[in-house]
Amino acid sequence: MESLDKTYQRYQNQVETGLSALLPKVDVAPGAIHEAMRYCLDAGGKRLRPVLLLAAADLYPQKADPLPAAVAIECLHTYSLVHDDLPSMDNSPLRRGKPSAHVQFDEATAILAGDALLTEAFRLLAFHYEEQPACCVALMKCLSEAADSRHLIGGQVVDTLSENTTISADELNYIHQHKTADLITSALLMGLHLTEAPAEAFELLERAGQSIGLAFQIIDDILDATSTADVLGKTVGNDARQAKNTYVSIHGLEASRKAAQEATMLAIEACHSLPGTKADFLVGVIRKLEHRLN
Ligand code: GRG
């Protein structure tokens, strides 16, 4: 049987191929924006969301090719990172170990590249699934809802407004749920929307996604608190780490580690309730995320 790492790599390779094939090439005019979009996407990253989408789409017989949807969610995720790094937000000079888009190009280009990636996500869904209108609408609803002002952007707004203030544990959960967990959940659900999955599978993966997202964000906060930022290629050169509320700043390191373990367990439990051994890969990824270093 294929190892977990091999399967992850196989999905990642599919994502890289899809990104390269489905995004406008740099020789498409205007080249400057396509170069910037590709720079942001080519900068690496775990490709977690598209890999989860492809894995969820492999759980049941497929109704349509999941690759364009996987590329779409990576475009949307990358847009959020590009805009988050801007001087008016986190002012991060590095992303994925390389200069952030506004450093590599300029601020206007970074804003436009983010806008273009967001638009591209929905263009991909509209044009690749038009012959399966029910799938197309379901994918659009799922992704747009996760990214809207009540979810991803809502989480970012509350996070931004709470800088330099002390917030409650509930407010922090709101931020984590909407900034991180909702998009991870939508990756799993978008995958299922491309299959013949029964309603119970949606309920289980919705639960799994929320727990994976919470665990993922708590671990991100632990990594930020316990590592030198430049080793991880993360935010350096600003005061964001001091000014931000994190799971560790509110609950402390030990309680954060315990909470990450608990959320990981809940995610695994939800996946184990899927029939047969269908969710073995997802369970493996969840376990691996708990021990990730970046
Ligand atoms: C600016 C619209 C807008 C939204 C910003 C996603 C987000 C909201 C901000 C990014 C900063 C951050 C720490 C978000 C929490 C989610 C998260 C941990 C993102 C990083 O995801 P990874 O680790 O990144 O999967 P890679 O580089 O591996 O893709």
Automatic annotation (TrEMBL):
Needed cofactors: Mg(2+)
Family: Belongs to the FPP/GGPP synthase family.
NCBIfam families referenced in this protein's UniProt entry, alphabetically: FPPsyn (NF045485)
Record PROSITE patterns: POLYPRENYL_SYNTHASE_1, POLYPRENYL_SYNTHASE_2
Entry keyword set: Isoprene biosynthesis, Magnesium, Metal-binding, Transferase
Gene3D superfamilies, sorted: Farnesyl Diphosphate Synthase
Domain of life assignment: Bacteria
GO BP annotation list: terpenoid biosynthetic process
MF GO annotations: metal ion binding; prenyltransferase activity
Protein name as annotated: Polyprenyl synthetase family protein
Gene Ontology, cellular component aspect: cytoplasm
